[in-house]
């Protein structure tokens, strides 16, 4: 299923640090590192951009320190696009896990460091100023994340707060960054976002509304009225049984102006990415491939892919758990078609051995392999659909 929204999705996002060909997958460098690999490793396998987290960088090393180092790009030696997430999702998760971790107030979120008791205050304004200190190419508004199980009244409150905070974030951003000449409208030509010319950072809003299509629509409309350069699908995107909330994703995509970049925040399972892309989402980030890599779970293509472009519902990949005994005497690479450092030089048997003896190089090679799988998935999704 490919929607009209997908047909008009932008094919490039121009930033001050180069163009992001869309769709793109950005690994999570939450604390200014994609664990186990460095910026040279990422460049080597064709990663075009990363996502950092403002909340975690406020905690350590502090966004002021990153600014003193010359900004996030220089701090990490990363010269390609950087998107910073506000950290709303993470701070709510921590507070929901244990209310002793902090409180959510009408105009701010107060997080208490469990070890030191030190407070980290997130307000809509501060979150923008912190991301400007980082020097990100795409900044995110602070949003109010609900739990997927929360009732409708709670979801409506979250939408109200998210929209109010987005207006404050917009005002703070506009006071610091030169004004936008023109914002996206419904009349923008397809696949173009002319106002996004790469000369300034961008501000993205987050659409909340839980599992209610009406609330999602209302939130999207209210954010469009304020005007943002792009939009993220926020909140927990899965049903209790783990399926992707396809109807919600579709409702949000249809409510937003064509030609605007849409980011499916935290959606990263390969089949979910393919599904969301068909709905018009073009930016993806997730901790899944790097976390799976560190757990010895490596992806491989089914025969014919990725030369053939995966479509929603296709069975196009599998995952090998390298600690399984079956790989002990397997002298083939993880994926015969892969050109990553792990597959170009090493066998499943050797990688399995590295995991068994607990050597850090296992994490590095596995991470590079899984991320290379995503780079190739994006390349495949960028090829025009046949017919
Ligand atoms: Zn590989």
Number of strands: 15
The CATH class assignment of the largest domain is Alpha Beta
The CATH topology of the largest domain comes to TIM Barrel
What is the alpha-carbon Rg in Å? 21 Å
Strand order of the largest sheet: 3-13-12-11-10-9-5-4
Small-molecule components bound: zinc ion
The string of secondary-structure elements, in order, is HEEEHEHHHEHEEEHEHEHEHEHEHEEHHH
Structural class: alpha/beta
Number of helices: 15
**What is the CATH architecture descriptor of the largest domain?**
Alpha-Beta Barrel
For the largest beta-sheet, the strand count, sense and barrel status come to:
8 strands, parallel
Overall pLDDT: 93
Topology overview:
Layout: H1 4-7, E1 12-15, E2 18-21, E3 24-27, H2 39-44, E4 50-53, H3 54-59, H4 63-68, H5 72-76, E5 82-85, H6 88-97, E6 102-104, E7 109-112, E8 119-122, H7 124-134, E9 138-140, H8 152-176, E10 202-207, H9 213-226, E11 230-233, H10 246-255, E12 262-264, H11 270-278, E13 283-286, H12 288-294, E14 297-301, E15 317-321, H13 341-345, H14 348-356, H15 360-382
